[in-house]
Amino acid sequence: MMQTNEIEAIKSLLSTPKKIGIIPHRNPDGDAMGSTLGLYHILKQLQHEVVVIAPNEFPEFLAWLPESENIMIFERNIEQSRTFLEKCDLIFTLDFNALHRTGEAMEKVLETLTATSIMIDHHQFPDGYANYTFSDTSYGSTCQMIYDFIYQLGYENYINKTVATCLYTGIVTDSGSFRFPKTTSKTHQCVADLIEKGINNSEIHNLLFDNSSYNRLLLLGKALQNLKILDQYKTSYITLSQEELDAFGHQKGDTEGIVNYGLSINGIDFTAIFIENKEEGIIKISFRSQGDFDVNQFARKHFNGGGHINAAGGKSFATLDETVQQFIAILATEKK
User: Fold this and answer.
1) Do the Cβ atoms of 137 and 107 come closer than 8 Å?
2) Averaged over 99-128, what is the pLDDT?
3) Whole-model pTM above 0.85?
4) Do 91 and 20 contact (CB within 8 A), yes or no?
5) Coil vs helix vs strand at 120
6) In what order do the strands lie in the sheet with 19-23?
7) Of 11, 253, 285, 302, which one has the greatest count of Cβ atoms within 10 A?
8) What is the CA radius of gyration of the chain?
9) 66 and 143 assigned to the same domain
10) Any idea what the CATH number is for the domain that residue 225 is in?
11) Does position 251 have pLDDT exceeding 90, yes or no?
C-alpha cells in the first residue's frame, strides 16, 4: 500500500480537473491495457481530461476492451502525443518501472517532462523517476494494485462494470487464469468484488482465450513442433523464425501464452521461447519457471531483460541459432 501522506497528496492533486496522461509499457499485454484503461475510466468520471498513450500497437485480442479505440499510439502520432504529454499536469506510468520499457523514442520524450509522475507497478528493482511510487512485487498484477489504489483514494464507488471489466482482464491474464503463485485470497476477494459489479467473467475469458484465428492455431502447432527438451537441465525451449511467423500470417499477440506450454511438461521447471523479429533486428525471448529458479535474474544477467522471479523477458541481437546456442551454453553453468 502507498503511504497515507502520499495518498493524501495524490487525492489533493485529483481534487480539481487536470490534464492526465496514462502510459503502459511497449507491447502492452492484458495487465498493461487493463490497468491503464481501468484507471482511465475512473479519472474520466472525476472530470479529468485523460488520454492513454501506448508506445506502440496493442494486440488485436485486447481490442474489445472498453474505449481501447481511444488509445493514442505514440509511434503513429509522435507529435500529437508529445504535445499532449508536454501539457499534462499529471502522468501515470503503469505496469513498468523503467522508462526504457516504453522504447527509445518515447523514453526521450518522457525524460524531458516536468509533470508530476506516479508509478504503479509490481516488477522488481524500480527506477527512481516518479514523484510518487507504488511498487510492490507481492502483487500478481498491476490491475490488482490499481484496485487497491482506488480504494485507498476512497474512489471505490466509481468502480462500475466498465472499470471492473478492465481490471479483471489484467488480473486473469497476469495470474495465468488464477494458477500462478502470487494468486492469493486477496486476489480472489478482489475478483469477487469485480464480479459483483456486473462483469461477465465467462465472456471476458472467451474473448481473451477462446477467440483464436485459424492461423493462430496453426502457428501454435508449428511452435509445438519446434519444442525441444533438455532433460539434463529440466528445461524446454521453443523457437519461431520470422519465416515461420510470416507463413502463418502472424498478427501482434498471436504468440501470447505459447511459452507456457513448455512449462506444462512433466519434470520441466524452466522454459523459454525465442521469436525472431527481423524488422527490429532482435530475437524476442520470454522465460518462465516453476519453483526457485529466478528467471528475472537470468534475463537481466544474460539477455538484456528482466521481470519477475517466475516470468521474465529479454532480447538478443545475435541470430536465432546463435541465441539458442548461447542459451544452452549458459544452462551448463546456471542449471548444473
Assistant:
1) no
2) 95
3) yes
4) yes
5) strand
6) 72-73, 49-54, 19-23, 90-94, 116-121, 132-135
7) 285
8) 20
9) yes
10) 3.10.310.30
11) no
- Residue 132, SS3 per DSSP: strand
Same domain for 247 and 199:
no
Residue 19 and residue 87 in contact, taking contact as beta carbons nearer than 8 Å: yes
Closest CA to 311 of 254, 278, 262, 242: 262
Where in the sequence is the domain holding 19, given as residue range(s)?
A: 4-208
With CA atoms as reference, report the closest residue to 301 among 276, 326, 320: 326
The rounded distance, in Å, linking the Cα atoms of 195 and 65 is 16
pLDDT of residue 64 exceeding 90, the answer is yes
CA pair distance 274, 258, nearest whole angstrom: 11
pLDDT digits (tens, 9 = 90+) for 183-241: 999 999 999 999 999 999 999 999 998 878 899 999 999 999 999 999 999 999 999 99
Supply 129's cell numbers.
523517476
Please give the tally of structural domains in the chain: 2
In the chain, the amino acid numbered 41 is: H
Which residue, 300, 315, 284, is CA-closest to 124?
300
Assign 142 to helix, strand or coil. Answer: helix
Amino acid symbol at 293: F
Q: Which amino acid is at 55?
A: P
The overall average pLDDT reported for the chain is: 95
Confidence band, pLDDT 50/70/90 cuts, at residue 40: very high
